Amino acid sequence: MMNVPALLLLLLALSLLVVSAAPAYAHFDHLTHYNSRGGGVGQYYVYEALEPDYAAPGEPTAIMFSVQDYDGRDTYNIETMVEIYTSSGERIKAFPWTKQDVGDFQVFYTFPHVGSYQIVLSIADGPVNTNAIDLPRSTLGSTAGCNCERLIFNVAVSQGFGSIYNSTLGGAVFSSLAIFGAVLGLTYWSKKKSGKFASAPGDTMRYIVTLAAIAGGLVHFAVYSGHASLRLEYSIFLIVAGGMQVTYGILYTLLTLTGSTTGRARPHEHYRKTVAVNLFGLIGTAVLLGLYAYSVTLPPPLSPTGQPEDVDLAGILAKAVEVFTLIGIVYLMRLEKRRLQTFLKEHA
């Protein structure tokens, strides 16, 4: 059957979620696309990120760290000092040596100007002056006179870059839908003009539902990378889920065009194919909605934080589209059944 490959992909993604034991790459709630770095120092591997990702001058910003060992395990009771330098080498902020109960911690700072900054994280590997601040250094990576390891992270503070990135991402999603919709429209009018297209009740709804399914898939493609820092498998699952949604939309569109072309489809065979494709879309969409409800209520499988997922705007939009798609698929299944019954009555 035509939906077997997609079902195999779903089973593969679910198996990765259930049985994989790969470590998390960081403990942030999402993978940042900007101002996010990672590096090893001594016995530690450190991840750094800003929240918001696209820090702007005059905006309170969280500087987040996740200090782990090289196997991705948590670290405990480490002493750290955080410094912020301008690109000219001037230290503009320092947070004193502090004992961190766990290696995941954050400090807050408001960057004053647009430009590049260096964030220096010092991790003690011997006695240090707790609650004190070391003197600034001209060589940022130098550990002279300090029982510590130092790691430098470069970040950029800009005005409006986040809006540009989000607009570009949104444009990529909606332009893909617009192109697909335009192709459908041109195909429809071309076949109708040539007399090869037999319109049927519900054609408009068919195209709306398929576009909604594809839109849900594109949203998953847009957000998959943001989950990689929690579990790599989460991103794999989102890619597979998006691929399944797009596959359903394209398959049903092809069936609709074939079934509406004069002399191209046998009614019984066409109906069986639509049932198979619609069941594939219905079950897949229901599974995605169920998994989302579970993940925002209870900690999802393999969660490194042990906390439910945050409810965000992208998630709400994606699930709203999927609820509409689910209802639409049920409507299409009833529509296809009525269409077959009408044909049988007319040719009895």
UniProtKB/TrEMBL annotation:
Name the UniProt key words of this record, in alphabetical order.
Answer: Membrane, Transmembrane, Transmembrane helix
Q: Where are the transmembrane segments?
A: 164-186, 207-224, 236-255, 275-294, 314-333
What is the protein's given name? Answer: Uncharacterized protein
